[in-house]
Amino acid sequence: MTTFVPTIDTTHGVSAEQWSNEVFAEYLGQNPFFTFMGTGSGNIIQVKEELTKAPGDAITVQLRAKLSGAGVSGNTVLKGAEEDLVFYDQRLVVDTLRHAVALRGEMSEKRVAFDLRNQAREALVDWAADKLRSDIVTALTDTSSGRDRSRYLYGATDGNWNATHATALANVDATNDKLTTTAISKAKRKALLEGDRKVRPFMLKDGNKVEEVYVLFAHSYAVRDLLADADFKALNTYIPTTFGDSVLVHGQRYKGMWDGVMIFETEMPLVSGAGAGSIDVAHNVLCGAQACALAYGKRTNYKEDIDDYGHQNGFAIDEIRGVDKLVFNSVDHGVVHLFTAGVAD
Fold first, then answer.
1. How far apart are CA 223 and CA 184, in angstroms?
2. Do the bridges between strand 292-307 and strand 312-325 make them parallel or antiparallel, or are there none, so unpaired?
3. pLDDT band at residue 111, thresholds of 50, 70 and 90?
4. Cα 301 to the center of its chain, rounded Å
5. Class of domain 13-37+49-64+87-140+295-323
6. Where are the domains of the chain?
7. Residues 6+ apart with CB under 8 A from 228
8. For 36, which DSSP code?
9. Based on C-alpha coordinates, what's the Rg of the chain?
10. Which residue of 11, 21, 107, 269 has the smallest Cβ count within 10 Å?
């Protein structure tokens, strides 16, 4: 007796549903910002997931300002000396984002090995990872809001500041305004000391040890100049054991640490021809906690479709999300913008 076994094609919805969580994990894991993402307010990129369980097309992120009063001491009456709580908020809108690939005809699949379905999924994962990275960079480097002198450093000196962004950029030159340890320390001091509201550091956890650090996401040309800085080289390239561990050899994104700031080479933008003598200027960002927020309305969903009577197969991913830099009371909350020379090799 022959037993009939029903066929489940590779485009069947069951297999697609099983892959959705894998796709989501894979594309997040490929993102250079993934290490700094989390639901807590101590993360550089705060992830908000409330809208995945409730209706709505936007979420409000709130910040409670620190109390500024001196309080009372001794027998001084406290009644009447209370302080009001002050809250700032920002509305973050989410929207649908999706993309797809198509295998056009059975012969397209026949001409190559069976792994075309895997190739389609990997292509979509790569696209989603690049798209999220690009959206985060765009948010962090937005200069249209939150611009305040306490959050901007143009080159090596605060004297390059100008109320007009383009004028300040024109003060950045190719000789004195490269990315150096001095510039990094100045940017950190802006985060710590300047403005009415300080930039909270990111809490880096290593086992039971917790360190407060800032993270600098820097353009490749800026990193190149930093690696030539004698002080940075002395601190980060002396390896007592194996030569292969040197940051000048392994080429990973993490380039080292200076003055409590971790430096990561990232695909940051160049402002073309904006500097002195029309040089390109690299837009780097020093980030602390709650630099930006990433809100999900729906997590990544992987789908497969069959069309033209089974002749064409399609593969797609979609999600609902939004990402934006956090700006409270018209000042960037967790970002110090550091503009340095970005002259090509």
1. 12
2. antiparallel
3. very low
4. 22
5. alpha beta
6. 13-37+49-64+87-140+295-323, 149-291+331-341
7. none
8. G
9. 25
10. 107
Instruction: For residue 173, give the nearest of 188, 156, 158 by alpha carbon.
Output: 156
**Structure tokens given for 187:** 């940017």
Ramachandran sector of residue 11 (left: φ over 0; alpha: ψ -120 to 50; beta: rest): alpha
Give the integer Cα–Cα distance in Å for 255 and 247.
Answer: 6
Do 17 and 9 touch, CB atoms closer than 8 A?
no
The b-or-e profile of 193-213 (16+ CB within 10 A means b, else e) is ebbebebbbbebeeeeeeeee
Average pLDDT over residues 81-106: 85
How many residues does this entry show for the chain? 345
Separation CA 92–CA 49 (nearest Å): 12
Helices (H) and strands (E) in the chain, counts: 8, 17
Distance of CA 83 to the CA centre of its chain: 36
Whole-angstrom distance, CA of residue 330 vs CA of residue 90: 10
Token pair for 125: 């994962």
pLDDT of residue 110: 53
Q: Exposed (0-12), middle (13-18) or buried (19+): which is 266, by Cβ within 10 Å? A: buried
Residue 126: phi, psi to the nearest 5? -60, -40
Token pair 């973050």 is found at 92
Q: Among residues 271, 155, 283, which one has the least CA distance to residue 219?
A: 283
Residue with tokens 């960037």: 332
| Residue carrying the six token digits 């997590």 | 299
C-alpha angle 35-27-32 in degrees, rounded to nearest 5? 35
pLDDT in tens, 249-281: 455 788 989 999 999 999 999 999 999 999 999
Quick one: DSSP state of residue 74? T
Closest Cα partner for 339 from 213, 150, 161, 138? 161
Both structure tokens of 136: 């985060």
Give the tokens for residue 307.
């069309």
